[in-house]
Amino acid sequence: MLFEDVLRGEIVLWVDFNNLKDDERLPTTLRYATGPRKPGVGDWVHIMDSDGDSCLAQVLRVEGMLVEVRPDWSTWKASAPRWSTWSPPRQAAKRTANLREALRRSRQRPSGGSSIEDSPLAEHPTASVGS
Amino acid sequence: MTEDERTAGGLPDGAVVIRCGHMKVEELEQSAQYYFDTHGEQEYALSFFSFAGRSVNYIARKARCPNPFIRTSTAGRISAAGYELVRTGRRAGHYSIFWSNKPSKEEWRAFRKLFSRSMRNIAAIE
User: Fold this and answer.
1) Do A76 and B63 lie within an 8 Å CB cutoff?
2) Does residue B17 sit within a domain?
3) Per the count of CB atoms within 10 A, which of B35, B64, B82, B117 is most buried?
4) CATH number of the domain at A2-77, please?
5) Strands (DSSP E) along A1-131, which ranges?
6) How many contacts, defined by CB atoms under 8 Å, are there between A and B?
7) Residue B125 in domain
8) What is the DSSP code string of B61-114?
9) Distance from the Cα of residue A7 to its chain's centroid
10) Taking the model in full, what pTM does it have?
11) Which of B8, B73, B67, B28 minimizes the C-alpha distance to A20?
């Protein structure tokens, strides 16, 4: 989501959900923010923690490096379907690398000698190789 | 109690302490840096939750973190490793550990070993 949001020109703020206050305010820092500009009060931004859990949030306050947002839990998207060793970016990168390698190898084969069933990509029938 | 007020933790050794999320080193670094950036650039800190004599699930519900996973430890294990849990903030059961210097990655790795493997957070938003 992060890259897509940046490409769309959206503001993404890193957050730590451990810092959630009783009144649903969530303070964070601009240090790890990405986007085309500094967020302003009233803006809707994406917030994401280091595990990749994310949702939309409205900016309540901006003061120096400090930003306070109010998360919209109805947009919550948890990232982790598996247990503690799960690492979204690393696994996604590995999967993409495997698919690229499989595609490269399939292109190197002599023409006319292989079918789709022979292709390593056949192991990932639902996968698509990104551009 | 204001958000910056601190009182002695006073947790018994057996008190369960939780932190929401997987506690990856990168996350610990960023969270501690957040505190440094937004609280006068004097020290680094992380947030934890605990209620003496209460179960993991009770504490997780009180913490209200949406994260799918949490990690747990005990006050005794943390203090035995030389860290002090300090009662902070307005939220009930909210504690902090402070560092005067920025911990290295090795320190973070050692610190996270004081906690269990990730376990499901009963209070997670599905």
Assistant:
1) no
2) yes
3) B35
4) 2.40.240.20
5) 12-14, 26-29, 44-48, 54-63, 66-77
6) 94
7) no
8) HHHT---SEEEEEEHHHHHHTT---EEESSSTTEEEEEESSPPPHHHHHHHHTT
9) 12
10) 0.74
11) B67
In the β-sheet with A54-63, what is the strand arrangement from edge to edge?
Answer: A12-14, A44-48, A54-63, A66-77, A26-29
Q: Say how many domains are in chain B.
A: 1
Question: Which pLDDT band, with edges at 50, 70 and 90, does A111 fall under?
Answer: low
Among the partner-chain residues B30, B46, B118, the one whose CB lies closest to the CB of A14 is B30
- At B15-58, the pLDDT tens digits run 999 999 999 999 999 999 999 988 888 999 999 999 999 999 99
Chain A residues touching residue B19 (CB < 8 angstroms): 18
How far apart (Å, rounded) are the C-alpha atoms in residues A49 and A32? Answer: 10
Q: Least CB-CB distance to A18: which of B65, B68, B125?
A: B65
Asked, for residue B126, whether it belongs to a domain, the answer is no
Q: How far apart are CA A19 and CA A62, in angstroms?
A: 16
